[in-house]
Specification:
CATH architecture of the largest domain: Orthogonal Bundle
Distance between the termini: 19 Å
Largest sheet: 7 strands, mixed
Radius of gyration: 20 Å
Order of helices and strands: HHEHEHEEEEEHHHHEEHH
CATH class of the largest domain: Mainly Alpha
Shape: globular
Strand content: 15-25%
Number of strands: 9
Structural class: alpha+beta
Mean pLDDT: 90
Length: 314
């Protein structure tokens, strides 16, 4: 007997979804960091911050609550004006942000700060929250758009944090269970230890299936449909959206999923051929397990997909 929508929503609400009180706590922690960093940038540099946007899974409400296998992180995008778009700007911005963070939190060890490919990360031991500080050079011609850098290869790509938040909100308006489905898929990803399968990629695959097939069927059926799509397509099918407009990029990677806010950006560009195969195989195994669990009403089998904390009632 398949899981009912009520059962899955119970699991989502009580186990997966970030509780309101934790969301409020994280908002406060993020707001304090934004205020301190903005003040430091204003007082100690000539950089002009024109806008700050909380982004990523936290802003899209697709974030998972923290557990031993589910980290919690918030992306904070700082829009900066009057800067050139080159590798030197990127290096200077990241070094500057890192130095300011060390001064803002002098009682933290330097290990709590890390420079990532596109962000500086602050990790708070007490709450377990990680905050990724993403500098973006503002595009004064397009509201919300700017250039984001990659520290390793020096490349820059246009992005729009508010547009990406709106993209998920629009799908949620069409399917009230869209965010639940994304959280289910992210929990499966974490349980299967598929680290290369990024959260943004999962959101886009789920959005593509909604665009193609609509919101018909139960939540369980649509989750199994997600697994089946990944298993059968093996992620070889090019994915794009009605929001995508030209110019379009030419991509040679094994997986091509266009960023709905920039058709020159392949969101899945870092996935290797080996990783593509691993993800497809993991999806096939999960789909077979989910089919068995659905047909046999076997809760223990669902735990193979979602982990030991899976439950559908008190």
């Amino acid at each position: 007997m398949p899981l009912t929508n009520r059962q899955i929503r119970y699991y989502d609400s009580n186990i997966l979804r970030l509780p309101a009180e934790k969301r409020k706590e994280y908002h406060g922690q993020v707001d304090r960091l934004i205020a301190e960093l903005s003040r430091s940038v204003r007082d100690k540099t000539e950089i002009k911050i024109t806008r700050v946007v909380k982004a990523g899974s936290f802003a899209k409400f697709t974030i998972l609550r923290k557990s031993s296998v589910d980290p919690v992180d918030v992306d904070v995008v700082f829009y900066i004006s009057g800067r050139s778009i080159d590798r030197e700007t990127l290096a200077n911005l990241n070094d500057l942000i890192f130095d300011l963070l060390v001064k803002i939190y002098p009682n933290k060890s330097v290990e709590h700060f890390e420079i990532q490919r596109k962000a500086a990360t602050v990790s708070f031991v007490g709450s377990g929250l990680s905050i990724d500080i993403v500098p973006v050079i503002e595009d004064e011609r397009r509201d919300g758009y700017g250039w984001q850098f990659d520290l390793q290869d020096g490349s820059s790509m246009q992005t729009c944090a508010p547009c990406q938040i709106k993209f998920v909100r629009d799908r949620k308006d069409r399917d009230p269970d869209f965010r639940t489905l994304v959280r289910l898929a992210k929990k499966w990803r974490n349980q299967a230890e598929l680290k290369p399968l990024k959260s943004f990629t999962i959101e886009l695959i789920m959005a593509y299936l909604l665009d193609q097939e609509g919101a018909k069927g139960s939540v369980e059926q649509r989750f199994r449909r997600f697994l089946l799509y990944v298993a059968q397509s093996e992620l070889k099918e090019r994915i794009q959206f009605p929001e995508n407009t030209g110019p379009f990029g030419v991509f040679s990677g094994p997986v091509v999923i266009l960023d709905p806010v920039c058709s020159l950006n392949n969101v899945a560009s870092r996935l290797s051929e080996t990783e593509r195969q691993q993800i497809a195989e993991a999806a096939r195994e999960a789909w077979e397990t989910a089919n068995f669990a659905s047909a046999e009403n076997e809760i223990e089998s669902w735990k193979e997909i979602f982990g030991p904390r899976f439950k559908v009632e008190d």
